[in-house]
Structures are given as structure tokens and as C-alpha cells.
Amino acid sequence: MDSYDFLIILFKTLLISVTLSCLVRKLRDFKKAPPGPWGLPLVGMLRSLSKTNSILQMVEFKKKYGKIFSMKVGYFDTVVISDYKLIIEALKKDEFQGRPDFEVWQIRNGGEKNRGILFSDGVKSWHEQRRFALRNLRDFGFGKESMEGMMLHEVDELVKLLKEKEGEAFSLRNHFNCSVFNSLWYIVSGERFELDDPKFQKFIGLFSGYLDKLPLFSPSHLYPWPAKYNVARRGLWKQYQIANETVLSHIDAVIDHHVKTYEAEVNRDFVDVYLHQHFGNNSEGTSFSTKEGLSHLRITLMDLFAAGTETSSTTLHWAVFFMCKYPETQKKLQEEIDNVIGKAPVSREDRTKLPYLEAFTNEVHRRASLIPLSVYHKVLQDCEFAGYHFKKGTIVYPNIYDAHHDKDFWGDPENFRPERFLNSEGTKTVSKEALMPFSTGKRICLGETLARDTLFYFITGIVQKFSFQLDPSSDDVDIDPPKPNFIKGPYNFQVVLKSR
Ligand code: HEM
Questions:
Q1: Is 63 exposed, middle or buried (0-12, 13-18, 19+ CB in 10 A)?
Q2: Ligand 1 in contact with 258 (CB < 6 A)?
Q3: Is residue 306 helix, strand or coil?
Q4: Ligand 1, atom 6: nearest CA belongs to which residue?
Q5: Distances in Å between the alpha carbon of 49 and those of 28, 55, 71, 72, 336?
């Protein structure tokens, strides 16, 4: 054998051993990855998840593969966690605090990665922006007495509008979102709109219309190319673009106005305090300074708008649906509110005296499961969890719907029964670990306090003033829609209301 042959043999041996070691490593990773259905190349499980009720399909996968299962969906590796204890554990881990690299999310964020809060990975800027927003929104009224007058005013305005509909069958679908937006946006930017202003209704309707139709597993999210090259010029993608552009240009005008009228000693709203931080001396080296700081502000405002309007308003829509579907529940609510506060405006101190109202609200959250798979998380670093290997970049779906419908925990999850959240005397609410409408862990909803306040004031206000009934055309409407979306709203039922 000459030296040339020897080199060839050496090269081949090396190639074979490298290939073998890669294969062994892949096989080992594969063995440690959570089990799950195979799916088709390039599509994964997307087709079958979009054709059926994906939530129910995941119930079947859990039975077959266990509480943690993996599946390829479109372009992405994903893992579903279908157990409330494991969700609580997983969402505490630093490695699980990312957000998927969806092209559509980056486009919404002005083409930049890690801006604002909602779609930003759990990096330094997310920590800073989230902590700042939480502290200052609280100072401006979240969960505070000062907020009460503003909330009650919004409820009054809504009641006036609803009174005009008395006796006729109509859909409440777009009746709560403008009022809910006003209560959030006033704290954020000092702005308030008239509920019957058609320009305002159109503005709010743009985003609601989009979110209303966004599927749980949306191809526009799972394939990057159409969004990247802007080839999808019609349908939902187009609607998304128009909604984003319209809302962002309004936000730009709000920031511009605040910058032009800025005074160092004046705190009108959240935008002002953010600008103090931006212009202040101690912002150097943080995400608040320079142009980047203003870009975080812009996207944070977008986040608050997007995450805070449709969520609370759809929950209110669900609340009316359950009141109509279960009239005996509505009667108990009316009796409690009549006995404790009568027709007087409700106040924050009344809250502990209205345990049935709180139990009802919790049961609405549970049975509706508004965001069934939470806002998706992403694995930031290869890690081990619950005996499995999680690869960097994997999307994690915390299955909140499963937590809310776990038979072992709730006993009768299909029934709407507010009493499950009351003590045996019915005098106090009891908390339940598996209830997590606002998710759990490090990225738990930033607006939970505001959302709870909004639901408290609005439900009390409308129950004081009206009785609700399903129109006979909606009498046999099911609770669960056949294909739940990213935000799971009720069927578009028709309601008839009567003044009390
Ligand atoms: C009933 C009403 C609401 C529900 C059910 C809800 C639910 C949720 C859920 C499930 C998440 C995902 C948490 C996670 O990633 O694990 C979330 C995140 C978020 N929510 Fe809410 N939300 C509601 C209202 C609000 C309101 C009123 C605001 C505005 C102030 C808001 C602002 C946010 C923000 C900014 C995030 C992102 C947090 C982060 O990524 O760190 N939400 N919400």
C-alpha cells in the first residue's frame, strides 16, 4: 500500500467515524426528546391541527404520548406541556422565557428583534422594560383608588349605549372593546375617545377583527417567507399589516405630542414617566436611552394595546354568555349585588363582600380559557426538564386549557359551577392552583391587576342595570366553538337585554 492509499483509507475511516458519532448523538437526543406524532415533512402536524378542533386533538395526544409531547408544526419544533404542575415548574425556568422567532412578530416590532415586552425574549431589555412598566402603571392607577372614578365613568357610558339597544336582539361582540381600551389608554397616554365615534370604532375594530380570526396554529406565523417577502397580499395577513400600521402611526402621534409638550416636572401619564426615564441622566447603558429607548416605548405601547384590549373585552363577552346560558347563576349574581350595594356605584372596598361575583369571574376564566395555549414561549438554551431534553429554539405551548379542564383536579370540568371557588358556607372565595388564565411564572400577564379591576367594575355595573337573555336564535349555542382561535371567544350569540 502506497502512502496515497493509506491517506484515502484514513480519510474514509475518519468520515465514517464522524458520521457514526453524529448519528449516535442525534439518536441519543431523539431518544431524550418528548415523544409525539410524526407529521408530514415541511408541514408537520399543521394540516391536521388546522382541520379539526386542535384543543381536542391535543387531549388525544396527551392520552397517547403523555403530559409532555413534541410535534413538528410547520417550520418549527414544538413541545406541548399539558399538566398544571409541570406548567408552573416550566415557566419558572430562565431557559423557557423566550418568544418564538416568528417573522410576523418581528415585522410588528418595526423589523427589530427584542423590542418592547410581549414578543421580546427574556433578555436584559425585557427585564428592564417589564419592571418599569409594571411599577409605573401601578403608580398611575392599576389596582388603585384613583382609577375608580375613571372606570365608573366608562361603565356609565357603556350602560347608556346599551340602553339604546334594549329589547332588540343584537351581538355584544364589539361593544366592550372600546370601553376597555379607554380605561387602559387613559392611564397610558391621557387620551379618551367617545364610544359612538365611528372613527374610533373603526380603529379598535381593525385589531379586534384580526385577533378574532387568528388561528391557534397560524401558517402566517409558522412559515417565515410570505411575511418576509411580503407575498401574502390578501386575507388575514393584509388585515394584520393594516391594523399594525394604523395603530403604530397613532402611537407615533401620541409619542410625538408628548415629546413636543414635555416638561420635566409634569407627570401626565405613563408616556411622560417613560420620557423622564429616557431623557434623565441615569438611563445611560440601559434600554431607555438613545433612539433604542424610544423604539422600546413605541413597541411597549403597541403591546399594551394589543394584549390589553381584546383580552378583557372578550372575557366580558364570555361573562354575559355564561349569565345567559345559566340564568340561575345570573340570578345569584343579581341577588348578591342588590343585597350588598344596591344601585349605588360600586367601590373597591365592596370587593371582599361580593364572593359570588369573584367565584363567577374565576369560573368564567376557567371554562372560557381565553388564551388556551398562552402566549407561546421559546427555549433559549438547550436544557433538561421533567426527564426530557429541550432543544434551543423549540416553541413551548403551555396548555392552559388542559390545566383548566383537568378531570383529576376539577372533578366536573365541563360544568359551569362558580361554587367550586367558594368555601362550604359560600362566604369566601378559595383560590385553586390550577386556575391560570393569566399564565404563571416569570412572564405572567403584566396587566392582571388592571384586567381584574376592569372585570369587577364592568360586570357589577351591567348586572346592576340589566338582565340578559339569549335571543331564541342563539338558544342552542354550544359553549365551545368548533375551532378555537388564539383568543378563544364565544360563538357570536345574540342577546336581548332588559333594564332592571
Ligand atoms: C382577561 C384579561 C387578560 C388575560 C386573560 C391575559 C392573559 C395573558 C396571558 C396568558 C399572557 C401570556 C403570559 C406568558 O407568556 O406566559 C399575557 C401576557 C401579557 N399581558 Fe395579559 N391578559 C389579560 C389582560 C391584559 C391587560 C389588560 C394588559 C395591559 C395592561 C395585558 C398585558 C400583557 C402583557 C404586556 C403581556 C406580556 C408579558 C411578558 O411577555 O412579559 N394583559 N396575558
A1: exposed
A2: no
A3: helix
A4: 438
A5: 28, 9, 11, 11, 43
What three-state secondary structure class fits 80?
Answer: strand
By alpha-carbon position, which residue is closest to atom 43 of ligand 1?
A: 445
Give CA 467 to chain center in angstroms: 29
Q: Is the CB–ligand 1 distance for residue 438 below 6 Å?
A: yes
Q: For 481-491, write each residue's pLDDT tens digit.
A: 888 889 999 98
Q: Is the CB of 79 under 6 A from ligand 1?
A: no
The answer, yes or no, to whether any atom of ligand 1 lies below 6 A from the CB of 302, is no
Total residue count of the chain as it appears in this document: 500
> Which residue's CA is the closest to the ligand 1 atom numbered 21?
445
Q: How far, in whole angstroms, is CA 422 from its chain's centroid?
A: 26
Residue type at 353?
Answer: K
2 Cβ contact partners less than 8 Å away, ≥ 6 residues apart: none
Alpha helices in 164-197 (DSSP H): 177-189
58 C-alpha to ligand 1 centroid (Å):
23
pLDDT in tens, 203-260: 898 888 888 888 888 888 888 777 677 666 667 778 888 888 999 999 999 999 999 9
- Nearest-angstrom CA–CA distance, 310 and 174: 10
Residue showing cell 384543543: 55
Q: Report the relative pairing of strands 466-470 and 495-499 from DSSP bridges.
A: antiparallel
Spell out the domains of the chain, with CATH numbers in brackets: 33-499 (1.10.630.10)
177 contacts 310 by C-beta, under 8 angstroms: yes
Report the alpha-carbon distance of residue 362 to residue 436 in Å, rounded.
10
Rounded distance between C-alpha atoms, residue 160 and residue 493, angstroms = 21
Ligand 1 atom showing the smallest separation from residue 377 Cα:
15
Cβ–Cβ < 8 Å for 180, 454: yes
At position 392, the amino acid (one-letter code) is: K
Average pLDDT over residues 46-53: 87
Name the residue at shortest CA distance from atom 1 of ligand 1.
312
Separation CA 181–CA 39 (nearest Å): 41
In whole angstroms, what is the distance from residue 214 CA to residue 194 CA?
28
